[in-house]
Amino acid sequence: MNKYSILFPFAALALAGCQGSGGGNQATSQASGGITGAGSTFVYPVLSAWSADYAKGGGPNVNYQSIGSGGGIAQIKAGTVDFGASDKPLDPKELAAAGLAQFPVVIGGVVPVVNIAGVDAGKLRLTGPVLADIYAGKVRKWNDPAIVSINPGVNLPAADIAIVHRSDGSGTTFNFTHYLGQVSPSWKSGPGEGTSVSWPSGVGGKGNEGVAAYVRQLPNSIGYVEYAYVVQNHMHWTSLQNAAGKFVAPSAASFQAAAASADWAHAQDFFLVMTNAPGADAYPITATTFVLMHRQPKDKGRSDAAIAFFKWALEKGQPQAQKLDYVPLPDTLVQQIETYVGQNVK
Amino acid sequence: MSWTLLRRRAVDWVALLFAGAATLFGLFWLAWILWTTLAEGSAALKPSLFTQMTPPPGADGGLLNAFYGSIVMVMLGIVIGTPIGIAAGTYLAEHGRHSKLAAIVRFVNDILLSAPSIVIGLFIYVLVVRPSGHFSGIAGALALAMILIPIVVRTTDEALRLVPDQMREAGFALGLSRWRVTSRILYKAATAGIVTGILLGLARISGETAPLLFTALGNQFWSANLNAPLANVPVVIWQYAMSPYDEWHALAWAGAFVLTAFVLALNLIVRLFARKGSKK
Amino acid sequence: MRDEAAGVDNAAVAIRGAAADRLYGLTTAGAAWLVLVLLGGTAFAMAWGGRQAFSTFGFGFITSRDWNPVELKFGAFVPIYGTLVTSAIALLIAVPVSIGIALFLTDIAPRWTRGPIAIAIELLAAVPSIIYGMWGLFVFAPFMGAHVEPWLNDHLGTMPIVGPLFSGPPIGIGMLTAGIVLGIMIIPFIASVARDVFNAVPSALKEAAVSLGSTRWEILSRVTLPYTRSAIVGAIFLGLGRALGETMAVTFVLGNAHDLSASLLMPSNSIAAVIANEFTEADTDLYRSSLIALAFLLFIVTLIVLTVAKLMLLRMDRAFGRTH
């Protein structure tokens, strides 16, 4: 009994794992085992719910992993996955260069949340420019006239605003900063928009969860999180003034209003960021996630399987999405997507 | 009683008290963290944790596919990394006391020790995942092995160098070849140190998330295919903990608790083996 | 006749021994080369990936405090600073504690408790790093922010020299919290190796010291530690390596702010945290290249720290009359 005999059981287990691959070639086992996708963390809950239902209904396994929108884009370009998901749309030039097609698949919203003593959910109202000035450090205290003037009757303390943003690159940040750039020229020329920007101040939380945790812990703080987190964690959300001048609360209805009023028909390859949508009841920071697929896929079988999955999800997966606080696409948009996919993905 | 003696005794007492306090300090953190893990994961600590697969939000489920994938990849990582680590550590201790190559390898090994695990994951991604065109459990195991190797090299090197030279000289005097001296005498004497190194490495690699993200990716469904994306506990913990759903949070914490318990169990088993082996 | 047969047998054994020796020599040397190749490959891959960043920013990459993904201006100063500070705090905490634990486990604890306590300490290494992060964010940081940091602010923040180190709003997350969490994470690495190493000191040496009337502390400081000096330093490097490269735990509690501040209570950034946070979302080549360049710089930082440490050791050796 020497030292090496300790390794025998480990080696046996490891070999047992190798046995599981069945010695078959990887293409068939992956196809029969299913298709792989990666990308945005925003859609991860709804995609995993859809694929579980799809598999239960007899479809192939659709294995989606959330590694971030940038990761999704990189992996689909490298061809290591069958589809990618990104919160930020690629422009038609980049799509053409990489041979990709893109289409939206689900809608959500990015909501500013606060932690101020005495201010409950929905009590605080903000406008786009004021929000941008807060994050830019121009409006520093909660009782600044700019905030007080739009919130008559709300008791705002004379305390410094503690800013929370994302530390990791994210599509949520992209949509949030895109909106800030649309409503505030100084933000656009300053930090600008992106999945990651140079924030003038504040702390960075990792993921929506990190931002939510910091906002909960830091008194007089403000942060931005996806709608699902607001609902699940009962956070104190704020209403935002939309492009039509109305103060709108985040909800499935206001997100759908934004989607309906967005000009999808004229967006080539659906290249459209929906923030600051013109509709009367539209919520200003509404976002959608895009699926990316190769136009001339190397493995047609897997590509077709992915298309079949998304067709099923777009047509039959809406109740699931709604249960998870996501907003389904309007029917006209679904039609547009199916036509696009039929034409572009061979 | 002389003043010096009093002072020396006092210093001794202070040191012993500090040692006791230090141990309590270490155990305190362990207790706090384990308690948190248990409390947060208690909702998910039921038999279904070990019998069902990772669920979509709102549904019941377990972590079976993740446990399986993690065990297989960690074991494979150990099988690949340990022999290389021990061999390199042996070289450094036995053949390389005064050689330039050994000094360089030792230095280089220490640098590799502090490489962020995400960097190692990216390295294996470029080396294995890109050329093969898909994520795989093998790539994950290779990344884990690469994290393990420097740890085992370091500890093996130190453990072997602590064995007094008299033992080596005694072996040579008996006419044993270098190989026999090392395997029959030195490894036996240094078993404790080498095993500690392997167990520390095992503990480290079973909890690593970043390298697996770019190599094994993860899998929502059951899969035993090492040549395709493979579920694993750390990535599941990361995804679930960062989500807004309470059932997923509970699963993440429960997974962490089980992972820690698993490493503890392995620790105990291996030490039992080592003790039996050395008693012979 | 028996001697002849024995002679042939001995020759056969000698030949087999020699062949085995050669194979053994080749295998071990080969493994050592493999380690070199692995590091060389990784370092080269990092340098290659970072070449765009280095050529764009030049040496200024190291001194610049910018980090602007939109305007594509990147600088490594803040991540390097954060990495060094948090690792220093971690070592300051972990080294004395680990030596203390090792002393306790080898000399003071009753024999029947040694095994369980040792395993408990090693269990600290088994906790996944992401759990350290989550526990740090949801449990420890609020505790620090509510109880510890205000105290530090009030009592130490006003003192003359150390004051600036402990001032600032008590948000709970920051360099101090991250340093403490890192310190806890590396305790098992240093303590376990130290314990094994203390046990390996020949009892003859310890007994000689006892017979001369040494106290336990004197045995530790005058016999055990000098004898195991190299292994202890190795253990410290093991822990330091972990601290410098730790990703998940640090991203949760360091605050991830690209700001430079003297106060330990303020958030900062570390190289591993920046890479982990931003790599999957980096959408331009220069951005990705800057992140990989950061990884390469971590190698360089480690190289410098290790070189300085080894030079210091060499000087200590020469002072004690050792030549190797």
Notable traits:
heterotrimer, A: 346 residues, alpha/beta, nine-stranded mixed beta sheet
How does this structure look, described?
- The complex is a heterotrimer of chains A (346), B (280) and C (324).
- Chain A has 346 residues and is an alpha/beta fold.
- Chain A is elongated, with a radius of gyration of 23 Å.
- Chain A starts with 6 loop residues before the first helix and ends with a helix.
- In chain B, helix 3 runs parallel beside helix 6.
- By secondary structure, chain C is mainly alpha-helical.
- Chain C has 13 helices and two strands, in the order αααββαααααααααα.
- In chain C, strand 1 and strand 2 form a beta hairpin.
- Chain C is globular and about 75 Å long.
Low-pLDDT ranges of chain C: none
Instruction: Please report the total strand number of chain A as a whole number.
Output: 12
Poorly predicted parts of chain A: 1-32
Globally, the shape of chain C reads globular
Q: Proportion of β residues of chain C? A: under 5%
The secondary-structure element order of chain C is: HHHEEHHHHHHHHHH
Oligomer state equals heterotrimer
Number of helices of chain C: 13
Helical proportion of chain C, percent range: over 70%
End-to-end CA span of chain A: 61 Å
The mean pLDDT of chain C is 83
Short synopsis of the structure:
The complex is a heterotrimer of chains A (346), B (280) and C (324). Chain B is built from eleven helices and no strands.
Describe the SSE topology:
The complex is a heterotrimer of chains A (346), B (280) and C (324).
Chain A: H1 7-19, H2 26-33, E1 35-39, H3 44-56, E2 62-66, H4 69-78, E3 83-86, H5 92-98, E4 100-115, E5 125-126, H6 128-136, H7 145-150, E6 162-166, H8 171-183, H9 185-189, E7 203-205, H10 207-217, E8 221-226, H11 227-233, E9 236-237, E10 239-241, E11 247-248, H12 252-261, E12 286-294, H13 300-316, H14 318-323, H15 331-344
Parallel strand pairs in A: 1-2, 1-3, 5-10, 6-7, 6-8
Antiparallel strand pairs in A: 3-12, 4-8, 4-9, 4-12, 10-11
Chain B: H1 3-41, H2 48-51, H3 64-95, H4 100-113, H5 117-132, H6 137-162, H7 165-173, H8 178-206, H9 210-213, H10 233-241, H11 246-279
Helix pairs in contact in B: 1-11, 3-4, 3-6, 3-8, 4-6, 5-6, 6-8, 7-8, 8-11, 10-11
Chain C: H1 2-49, H2 51-57, H3 60-63, E1 67-68, E2 73-74, H4 77-108, H5 111-126, H6 129-155, H7 175-199, H8 203-211, H9 216-227, H10 229-245, H11 248-253, H12 271-278, H13 285-320
Antiparallel strand pairs in C: 1-2
